[in-house]
Amino acid sequence: AADKINLIPQDFFAELCEQIIQHLNHKIPGVDIAELCQRIQASGIDINVGELAKLANAVSFLFSTAARNNLSTEDLVATLGSAATALPKHAVQVIRHVWNEQGKSVSASEDARSMATVGQFVDMKWKLGVAMSSDTCRSLKYPYVTVTLKVADPSGQITNKSFEMTIPQFKNFFRQFKEMAAVLETV
Amino acid sequence: MAAVQEREFAALQTLLKAPSKDAVRQLCRECFSSPPAGLGPLAQRACPALAAGPEKAEKLVSALHSLTRHVVYCGLTKGEDILALFPENFHQNLKNLLTKIILENISAWRSEAQASQISLPRLVDMDWRVDIKTSSDSISRMAVPTCLLQLKIQEDVALCGNSPVVSALTVELSKETLDTMLEGLGRIRDQLSAVANK
């Protein structure tokens, strides 16, 4: 992960660290790696989602370990300096700044959400479409619903899962959610 | 989907040696459902029943596949339209039999074509549960209701062929996130009603 840090410009790295620390502070449900990676790639940098995810994990581990050991900013920077592979200067600067500003509030905070063992639902995007024609049927007129769920996995990374439903499936889907909501009201 | 060629209709004549009408029926279904790659093995299996050599069997199977897929592609539903596909001097009885078989199966075939067209992964099942979190190693007492939802999603059928890959996505929703979901779903429902009324 250390060698990939060299590729990422300071402002993107700062954004990544900001998201990570906000996630550790339970201010946001997770880090949207895919979205950030897209923007980094759009600016011409050759990095893929897997590499960015590894880097995010490493930084997240760094911050949470530092929190557990109650490291001050100077201690953290000193630890980084003595690490086997030296981080580029701009990365150390970013880490120092982010830790200084928000490091103190990262703790084993009393929050029901920190007991996440499955992905947390973040958001849903949808599209209603009609398939007009395909290689098997010239005239289809087949309506369907496409849904993309944004889910934050326990490590805090946000992934997208997209799938399609037929209209009857969608109606059943909706009905089930209304039932869930009704049950939640009563407990 | 190209029109059925003259030589393909000629190949269909091999069906005259079929043991029974049901055998023809069965073969038609198998030829429609088989992907192009499966036609070779299908022809080999059909050889003995048709008392035809491998080459003739292959040409027949390929022609039947072509004909049935063409009918579904064009969306033909009337007997006269299907009859009109055959060349003038085609064997009368065989033409009528094939048309009858096609008409019997056309709507099931259309559904099959729709189900196997390219698409994003499809939702195949969903299960849910409502839990109350009562305590954890960091908080001794709480009463937080939470929903656990498991969605079973099947990857694109066209890519998986005969062994579909189903993945399970387990997601936790709080009351707030469930409300977000419901709001989104409600809007889809409104859109559907608007489109249906047009």
From TrEMBL, chain A:
<feature type="domain" description="COMM">
    <location>
        <begin position="120"/>
        <end position="187"/>
    </location>
</feature>
<dbReference type="InterPro" id="IPR047155">
    <property type="entry name" value="COMMD4/6/7/8"/>
</dbReference>
<comment type="similarity">
    <text>Belongs to the COMM domain-containing protein 6 family.</text>
</comment>
<protein>
    <recommendedName>
        <fullName>COMM domain-containing protein 6</fullName>
    </recommendedName>
</protein>
<dbReference type="Pfam" id="PF07258">
    <property type="entry name" value="COMM_domain"/>
</dbReference>
<dbReference type="InterPro" id="IPR017920">
    <property type="entry name" value="COMM"/>
</dbReference>
<comment type="function">
    <text>Scaffold protein in the commander complex that is essential for endosomal recycling of transmembrane cargos; the commander complex is composed of the CCC subcomplex and the retriever subcomplex. May modulate activity of cullin-RING E3 ubiquitin ligase (CRL) complexes. Down-regulates activation of NF-kappa-B. Inhibits TNF-induced NFKB1 activation.</text>
</comment>
<dbReference type="GO" id="GO:0051059">
    <property type="term" value="F:NF-kappaB binding"/>
</dbReference>
UniProtKB/TrEMBL annotation, chain B:
<protein>
    <submittedName>
        <fullName>COMD9 protein</fullName>
    </submittedName>
</protein>
<dbReference type="Pfam" id="PF07258">
    <property type="entry name" value="COMM_domain"/>
</dbReference>
<feature type="domain" description="COMM">
    <location>
        <begin position="122"/>
        <end position="196"/>
    </location>
</feature>
<dbReference type="Pfam" id="PF20923">
    <property type="entry name" value="COMMD9_HN"/>
</dbReference>
<dbReference type="InterPro" id="IPR037360">
    <property type="entry name" value="COMMD9"/>
</dbReference>
<dbReference type="InterPro" id="IPR017920">
    <property type="entry name" value="COMM"/>
</dbReference>
<dbReference type="InterPro" id="IPR048676">
    <property type="entry name" value="COMMD9_N"/>
</dbReference>
